[in-house]
Amino acid sequence: MTGNPPVLYGPDNRPLPPAGPNPFGSYEVSRTAAGLRGTLSNWLVARNTKYSARRERQVVADRAEDLAANDTHAASSIDSITVNTVGTGLMPQSRPNAKVLGWTDEESREFQAQAEWAWHIWQGESDAAGRLTFWQNTLVALRTLLVKGEFFRLPLMIDAPGRTFSLSLQSVDPLRVYTPNDFTWKNNIKDGVEFGRYGEAVAYWIANPDDGFVSMDLPSANFSRTPARVGHRPGAIHTFVSKSEEQNRGVSVLAPSMKFFKDLNDYLDFELVGAIIASSFPVFVETTDPTGSAQGLQSTDPEADKTRYHEAAPGTILYGNLNEKPHVLKSDRPGGSFDSFVERILRAIGASIGMPYEVIAKDFSKTNYSSARAALLEAWRVFGMYQKWLVDGFCQPVWRMVIEEAWLRGMITLPKGSPDFYDAMHAYTRADWIPPRKGNVDPLKEIKANILAIQHNIATLAGVTAEMGGGDYETNLHQRSSERGLEKDLDVIPPADAAAILYEPDEPEQELPHATGN
User: What is the DSSP letter of 9?
Assistant: First the structure.
């Protein structure tokens, strides 16, 4: 049963007439952000079309590659993110879902050992070109993602002598993926990616020019169409950081601050040239006695007083010609605000790529423990985000294919009563990916924190061991058991007060003298 609509009464205690739709629209406040007056008058945003997107992406990628190769701070930014995100590799630890599979702990540990050994063998032959191990391939992939905005890897099955696995990964330069010239009219192909009904990637068009020169005028005959998926396996791995709903290609992390990088690099170069010139200024001496000491330097030629010096070595003393009066040139460059100005620009650049100033400039001279740790924690949030993108978009799909092939080759045996591999593939191929160690700002404080976290079940021994670069925790436990047995045999007594160190109060933090200021 539907009730009558509520009745509203006015100040005169009479019912108000129902409000109908406003024919002139709503009475919303006009937003200044949409205005075209004052400083916003020339702010007209240009948007890409499917025809201009590839050209712009290539220009941005080319400029970013140039910055990463020739700009000190851009190179530092890329290297810092790459080394701290991947380092010597994201290491997998097999974690099959024993509950779903109906396994005991012993059966689970046996499967983990077999899976990790199969991975250890495969990662050495993972590169189709035979040059890179998997962790090196991951490092290159992330660097390409940062510089060019994305990376492509094609899973291939190569049967060759000396290989244990057929699976290998072929690297593809992102600039080779674009729309053939005779397919630009197709609405389902955008910037080299062929899409399906729901916006999913169906295939990628990869240029294979005969002369090796990638041109935008190549027809489809010079392309290979690579399917995005082949059955349940990826036919091409395309990874990029998506920042909008319908984004289909990646953008360099350097793009927002690219102009700052370029202008700052030019500014530093000009300041350096100015400093070189300033340090090379000679002393110019005028003599008022044409027959005196300078006579030997004067010629009887009447054109002698027109002598000009085109070069001057640092510290040179030049005697001038008669009737010429020198002026001492002074250089005030760089100015007193040089350091603070450069630091401010670097902080703006760092904010655009998510990195603190200390990481980009490698300058921790103005920090104490708390500020250094805060800066590194902020950086590690960004590193963790890239690690998650790599794991979900690259590492885990590859791990799944490796474990599948290892099972097919008989390198992994399943306990009796286990479900079929393809019926429970996700349970079999579950894994944790351990990032490289973070390093310690204050080792004692952080080790104490890790020990207490393990004791109170906040962290695991496996996770802490891997993060600190200690390898596999099970191997460590076996090694420690052996060491303790040897200590007992040799009557080596560990210090009785070792555990007491955990509960000693930390020393008060010392501020660096130059860390405090106005």
Answer: B
